[in-house]
Design goal:
There is one protein chain. By secondary structure, the chain is α+β, with helices and mostly antiparallel strands. It contains two helices and four strands, in the order E-H-E-E-E-H. A hairpin with a 2-residue loop joins strand 3 and strand 4.
Length: 71
């Protein structure tokens, strides 16, 4: 049974409809590309707090603050 885990930052701007579209789209893609039975495909979406997500050694929370200050 294929399992797909999508991780995104938790910033409150991803709607339930967008998540539904991601789940449907990924399910369809895996079915088409890997020829898997999509009835057994599991897709999960984890929303990670920006304090717990780092890029280049810096938490995303700090990167967002720096980007806003630079504008």
């Amino acid at each position: 049974m294929p399992y797909v885990n999508i991780k995104i930052t938790k910033e409150g701007n991803v709607t339930a409809e967008q998540k539904k579209q991601l789940i449907a789209g990924v399910t369809q893609l895996i079915g088409e590309v890997l020829h898997k039975n999509t009835k057994n495909l599991v897709v999960t979406i984890d929303e990670v707090d920006t304090d717990n997500w780092g890029i280049g050694g810096v938490p995303v929370t700090e990167l967002r603050k720096a980007a806003r200050a630079a504008k």
